[in-house]
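Take a record.
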Amino acid sequence: MKKFNAFVKKEFLHIMRDKRTLLIVLGMPIIQVLMFGFAINMDVNNIKTVFYTPNESTSTQQIEELFVHNRYFNVKGHINSIYEVEELMKKGKIEMAIVFSPQFDKNLNKKVKSQVQIIVNTCDPNRGTIASNYATAILQKYQSEITVDNFVPYHINVESNFVYNPQMKSVYTFVPGIIGLVITIICAIMTSASIVREKELGSMDVLLSSPINSAVLISAKVAPYIVISIVNVITILLLSVFVLQVPIRGSLLLLLLGSLLFITMVLTLGILVSSVAKKQSDAVIISGIGLMLPTLVLSGMIFPIDNMPVVLQWFSATVPARWFIAFIKKVMIEGLGFRYVIGELSVMLLMAVAFITASIISIKDHLK
């Protein structure tokens, strides 16, 4: 334990002496969150939709057909109760529910208003608004077609119900994404330079001659950065809540535990990069640019993963930030509990174990 503490102290001193690195590590997250949180915008397709039809009729079937043949919608079928909508949305299986009133067909033929409710998940407000507009346009098109065919005025009253983000604030989308991006880049850059720095400074010989094993060495390298990263996460969350007005609806403890798991995973990924790279500049480029682009494009932060080609969807599963961003959206924005994020947590845990194992093997090779 004394050896571990000594290594942790040594790493802290390394970090504190380098003022420029410290400024980047602690200042960059604040700048990125403020800049991206207010600036970015985005867009849709493959809207997972279900129907609740208490009384099936020719008119409801015709409307459902229009949705089935519309390229923007991915119709998942029918539900038996309106109460299934919330559970399916929590599990991420649907984004929209089209709910017909029991008297829909009867009122339509009586020339009185027929009620249709559109329930949309607006955790991503841009996607939710566009999805709602597409659905409304289909219902209006159907109404105009039957009116022309029958020369009588039909009335379909569409009511939209936005859940999770009824105010449609775009910042609700970008804050979780920016947290994932910032942690990925900062943590990976911080640790990726650590082993390479030892090589460049010639202190690798000290490590080679020390009695410390690879697992302890990696733990000692990672521990100070975990503390700094947790400070970053808390800073970002405080900015999100008090500056950007994004609430934390779920468990704060669960949010921090998931963040800790993700931080550990990315830090060990940085150590893995560090053990492979020959120079500090190479390590920073690999971890910075090599991780930033996949995180921006394939994590679901900006572009919906469901819209991507299948090959890219598979590749996106290997991007660590994808699982963390999905996790943080569910906990922070949707207010979901442990059982709804166990999938994301499991993937992050598996990735962390894989990166730690690969790092230990790689360090052992270097120590030999």
Remarks:
- The CA atoms of residues 118 and 135 lie 8 Å apart.
